[in-house]
Design goal:
It is a single chain. By secondary structure, the chain is mainly α. It is 79% helix and 1% strand. The longest helix has 40 residues.
């Protein structure tokens, strides 16, 4: 933590002020949270004093070269907290959150004294945020189902498998594939899907058509196109709005492409910024044209048209892993056997199935081979292929008005992408 603004003070007082700040952050949150309670264990002053106690204890321990002083005082603090907890339990309940936060305040003071001021302040802020979210956490827990709870647990298991247990080793032709990278890819795509699921579940009807389209586009713009096309036939008076939703969800695909390439090949993101921005803006302009004269014509239950499904379907995650490996091998052998034109053809084929797989696979290959221009063209071709597929889907399933506007939007996107390919 930069303490240059306190440089006019001796180092002891610099640390003292920062330690006081950590206690104030925690104490302010606790004082506010307990303001309506008849009995409160610790507030603003108690937390501030505790962090100063931790700071002075650690300073004294360092100066006296007696590190045992810190755990001895910590033991005394724990004893004090235990007594206070017993008294509180007798009066009103068995909550122990404030007591733990008070001990964190003591430890924060210790950290400041031994040179970890930034870490101490960051930890205090993190704890304060967690404490302030108590009501929202309780509301969230009440709303989730047993299946969703199991999905969260599976997700944590997936984190352990992907980042800790999978070997850090390459395999396959020319060491093309990496065990841990495959796990990381599954974890990343699962995170996007889980985020979309939660936003749809808890945002629900409040999003309207555009909001639902945007959130749905986080995990599948094709699914949004499928659902909205059918819905446009049921409510033809809103067909134009549904076409705008379809185009918006498709626009999110370009944001996903930039996000994924930024993670795996930052240089490739710079190559793709212009074509993705062009295709996104074309879609956005058409969406604006469709929605501006119809402002306020929102539906209250559009979100119900996007099936939530399983919040974390491991079968689907394994399917994606197989697809990712298959696309990687497909692209590898296409480049070897057919050259550039064959690779572009395979990208167009792969883009129909899944844009995330082709984007990640090509990004990792480009990062390894430093062929960013070629990789950018490959991803744009896959995106155009995916766009054409969604356009065909809309042509077959949607109301004529939805078909008309969506086709115009998709056609303009294809023109923008094709122009970039022609002049790049």
């Amino acid at each position: 933590m930069d303490t240059a603004w306190l440089s006019f003070l001796p180092s002891f007082f610099q640390g003292l002020i920062i330690a006081l700040g950590t206690g104030l952050v925690l104490g302010l949150e606790r004082e506010h949270q307990q303001s309506a309670e008849p009995y409160s264990f610790a507030g603003l002053r108690t937390f501030s004093l505790m962090s100063i106690t931790g700071y002075l204890t650690a300073k004294l321990a360092v100066q006296a070269a007696n590190t045992w002083l810190i755990p001895l005082v910590a033991l005394g603090v724990l004893l004090l907290i235990t007594v206070a907890y017993w008294v509180q339990a007798e009066r009103q309940g068995l909550g122990i959150t404030t007591e733990i936060a008070l001990f964190v305040s003591y430890l924060s003071g210790n950290l400041v004294a031994v040179g970890y001021a930034g870490e101490a302040f960051g930890g205090a802020v993190t704890v304060a945020v967690l404490l302030s979210l108590k009501t929202r956490f309780k509301l969230f827990i009440k709303q989730i189902s047993q299946e969703e709870l199991a999905a969260f647990l599976k997700f944590f298991v997936l984190i352990v498998l992907a980042l800790l247990l999978l070997p850090d080793a390459y395999f396959g032709p020319d060491n093309l594939l990496h065990y841990r990278s495959i796990g990381w890819v599954i974890l990343l795509v699962s995170s996007i899907s889980l985020t979309g699921y939660l936003l749809l579940k808890f945002g629900g009807a409040g999003y309207g058509i555009l909001g639902t389209a945007f959130v749905g586009g986080l995990f599948s713009s094709t699914l949004v196109a499928w659902a909205f096309s059918a819905r446009s036939r049921e409510t033809p008076q809103m067909a134009a709005l549904f076409s705008g939703g379809i185009l918006l969800s498709s626009s999110v695909m370009y944001l996903r492409v930039l996000f994924l390439t930024r993670l795996f090949a930052p240089e490739l993101t710079r190559q793709l910024l212009l074509p993705c921005a062009l295709m996104f803006l074309v879609n956005a302009l058409v969406v604006g044209f469709l929605y501006a004269p119809r402002r306020g014509q929102q539906m209250d239950h559009v979100a119900s048209d996007i099936p939530l499904g399983n919040p974390l379907d491991l079968k689907n995650a394994l399917y994606f892993a197989v697809l990712y490996v298959g696309v990687s091998l497909f692209m590898h052998y296409s480049r070897q056997e057919l050259g550039e034109s064959g690779s572009f053809a395979s990208a167009a084929f792969s883009g129909i199935a899944d844009m995330d797989a082709i984007t990640i696979s090509t990004s990792q290959w480009a990062q390894r081979m430093s062929t960013y221009d070629y990789a950018a063209r490959t991803i744009v071709i896959a995106a155009l292929s995916n766009t054409v597929f969604k356009a065909l889907l809309v042509l077959v399933r949607s109301h004529p008005h939805t078909r008309k506007y969506a086709t115009i939007g998709f056609s303009l996107v294809c023109v923008a992408g094709a122009l970039w390919l022609a002049f790049h």
